[in-house]
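Need residues for this backbone.
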């Protein structure tokens, strides 16, 4: 399985198609206007198998149109002919049930699995996620139309303050020394959750444990099944046999 996006060169798309890897196209809200045109053209021309619809809740780059998954996934069900998965903000089984109800064929979890025993993120990062709520992320670089959702730590808050203070005069060099990847990697090595930028989605507000991946998977599946078979089925009145 491989992950591509709208910036992937066509020759690489062909290579993915001809290999054993199954391409997943990541479609963010910024590409919403391309759902019928550019993305569909890509699907038809290169045979992408699955689309990941990334909602505004996601970690990293959510796009510039601020479209949440409650609308984005329903839109995907209307206009896409290939399977798609819900990405962004997914952290429990009830949300999986909701994504399936909206038309998605599955979910893509990122941040939630960073809070597992197998993840090589430092213990301090995981502890901060445990203590966080859904408001503990920062949307930085908005003025540059390169929005990134990251965890709200000291460095992220400094970037946020600089961007706000400078207004229209803001440019990337003003914060490059704060957001550079080498600084983030050093923070990981030093187990310093405030030492650099690290991406995290709004799902941090749902994280209340650090399970193993297997334990998390079992929990997600059970909760999704219980929601579908229990709560949702109980809301449907049985049809009359008369």
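Answer:
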């Amino acid at each position: 399985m491989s992950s591509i996006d709208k910036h992937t060169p066509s020759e690489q798309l062909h290579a993915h198609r001809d290999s054993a890897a199954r391409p997943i196209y990541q479609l963010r809200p910024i590409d919403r206007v391309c759902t019928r045109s550019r993305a569909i053209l890509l699907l038809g021309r290169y045979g992408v198998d699955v689309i990941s619809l990334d909602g505004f809740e996601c970690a990293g780059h959510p796009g510039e149109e601020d479209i949440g998954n409650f609308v984005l996934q329903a839109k995907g069900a209307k206009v896409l002919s290939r399977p798609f998965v819900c990405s962004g903000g997914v952290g429990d089984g009830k949300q999986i049930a909701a994504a399936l109800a909206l038309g998605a064929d599955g979910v893509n979890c990122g941040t939630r699995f960073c809070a597992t025993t197998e993840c090589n993120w430092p213990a301090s990062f995981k502890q901060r996620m445990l203590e966080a709520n859904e408001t503990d992320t920062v949307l930085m670089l908005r003025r540059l139309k390169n929005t990134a959702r990251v965890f709200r730590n000291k460095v992220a808050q400094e970037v946020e303050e600089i961007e706000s203070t400078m207004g229209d005069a803001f440019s990337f060099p003003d914060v490059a020394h704060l957001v550079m990847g080498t600084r983030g990697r050093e923070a990981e090595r030093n187990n310093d959750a405030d030492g650099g930028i690290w991406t995290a989605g709004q799902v941090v507000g749902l994280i209340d444990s650090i399970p193993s991946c297997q334990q998390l998977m079992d929990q997600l599946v059970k909760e999704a099944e219980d929601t579908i078979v229990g709560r949702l089925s109980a809301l449907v009145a049985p049809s009359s046999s008369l």
